[in-house]
Design goal:
Number of helices: 4
Oligomer: single chain
Largest sheet: 6 strands, mixed
Strand content: 25-35%
CATH topology: tt1808, chain A
CATH superfamily: tt1808, chain A
Strand order of the largest sheet: 4-7-10-11-12-13
Order of helices and strands: EHEEHEEEEEEEHEEEEEH
Shape: globular
């Protein structure tokens, strides 16, 4: 992603009315063009995670969505941050709108790529923390690891997992993800 610097500060209204098919994210009023498109490995991991979460959620009140699906983290204040996480889970259906989610989802998953790794680990990490995202996963296909961040007392408590682990999804009681199945798709 690269920052576009035509204007000093953008809002959701600018984002929604941009009039093109190029994918962007808006972080603290700065627009970032999303390039390049996700790789085959990224899409395979995203698809398998989506499949497992969707299967678990069948018949339950929470819903899982895959990118592109926008998340307006602060729609009631500055409305200057709109992200497109790879996957997200929403349990409060009042947050759902036709264009995406208004407020913090319960869970977000970002799958790292070389062009987004720093932003996912630092900038988005802090945005999700401050917005109140209860569970944030960062999946690293390169070293087959997952960092799981659970919101407790206003901070994230982090656990690290490998491709040999089964990870509990804390916001979905009884849900576990076998990482061997997830990373097996990238062979």
């Amino acid at each position: 992603m690269q920052a576009l610097q035509e204007k000093k500060r953008y809002t959701y209204a600018d984002y929604a009315n941009r009039g093109d098919d190029i994918r962007y994210e808006l972080i603290d009023g700065v627009i970032y063009m999303m390039t390049p498109p996700p790789t085959r490995i990224h899409q395979a991991i995203s698809g398998e995670l989506y499949y497992q979460l969707r299967h678990f959620l069948s018949g339950k009140p929470c819903e899982v969505y895959a990118a592109p699906f926008c998340v307006r983290l602060n729609p009631d204040s500055d409305d200057d941050t709109v992200l497109e996480p790879d996957l997200l889970v929403v349990c409060d259906k009042s947050k759902l709108g036709d264009a995406g989610v208004n407020g913090a989802p319960d869970m977000i998953v970002e799958i790292l790529s070389p062009s987004t790794a720093r932003r996912d680990r630092v900038l988005k990490f802090n945005k999700y923390l401050h917005a109140g995202v209860r569970e944030y996963w960062i999946v690293d296909p390169g070293d087959k690891t997952v960092s799981v961040h659970i919101l407790k007392g206003g901070s994230y408590v982090t656990s690290a997992y490998t491709d040999a682990d089964t990870i509990p999804v804390h916001v979905l009681d009884g849900c576990t993800i076998n990482m061997k199945d997830i990373f097996e798709v990238i062979k």
